[in-house]
Amino acid sequence: MSTKIEIEKNLTSLKNESPLIIAGPCSAETEEQVITTARLLKNDPRISIFRAGVWKPRTRPGSFEGMGEVALPWLSRVKKETGFKIAIEVAKPKHVELALKYNIDILWLGARSVVSPFVVQEIADALKGTNITVMIKNPVIPDLKLWIGAIERVNASGINKLMAIHRGFHFFEKSPYRNSPMWEIPIELKRIIPDLPIITDPSHITGKRKLLNEISQKALDLEMDGLMIESHVNPSVALSDAAQQITPSRLKDLLDNLIIRKKKGNPVFENSLEKLRNEIDKLDGELLQILARRLEITDEIGKYKRENNITILQMKRWAGIIRDRLSIGAHLGLDEKFLYDLLKVIHKESIIRQTGILNKKNKP
Ligand code: PEP
Ligand code: MN
Description:
By secondary structure, the chain is an alpha/beta fold. The chain contains 13 helices and eight strands.
């Protein structure tokens, strides 16, 4: 997949050794709560952006849905008093209009809005002609194309100060997290749009305070460009997302404990790294050749099966392969689940190719 997204280069200055830290309450609840939280967060120079939800997209009706427009002057006050840049979520054109009126610095599109191309397009249209920074959260469902589509829509409106926010994905299986991180998705986004900063939102991934540290560390170890963490002066009485918010002082501890690893080492390290990487490149080349040979042989088998009118999937053989390879793998120290998944992917490709051969109109 390719894309023509243009990211303003000055944003790549974010991509340095120190991560961008965005903090603030899930929701702006009262002027007092917003100002007190912001003042406490201001004690930590690592935090540069203050977030607060003004309109809250709640999954079910009947709970607190944000204070709306009345909260915007509170945020202007935070900006004036602390110098923080202010970020809020916008979900419709009216929100964009009001945010611009109150000089909000950064807007974000929430995970529930990003699933709808209509909603995203309406917001993108409202953004035309502005030069504001926009952050785009991943959609609730694990669909990278939908995420990139939203980024493209906003970019096509002339917005090139863009960032992505990784807040995890809805996942039906039981998990320790509120939203599964599925790290492979933001990593693939990074590969496709290397200039786009990606900020991880450990609060919405974990849904609980005690898991925030590990997800924050993992995000940095995977070269994400920053963190957005919900912080409330008194989390236990928060009107939304109480279980995942932390006090500013606990946020300071979390940041103190983060290990910020370097992206590059000294020349000796870089040299040995390069040697090892060359080795990997060579092995990958061999692996690909072996894979191609293996598939050629399964094609051959496909032709025999076709000539003799035999079914493609032979359960006994497949069960035997799994048993045998897993036992060899165990001796080689390969993780069972990893190997099982790998064998399934290879087997699936063999079946696809053999099905193609079986269904070919003219015999070769
Ligand atoms: C939020 O940031 O408070 C929020 C509602 O997030 P999300 O869109 O990721 O659920
Ligand atoms: Mn929240």
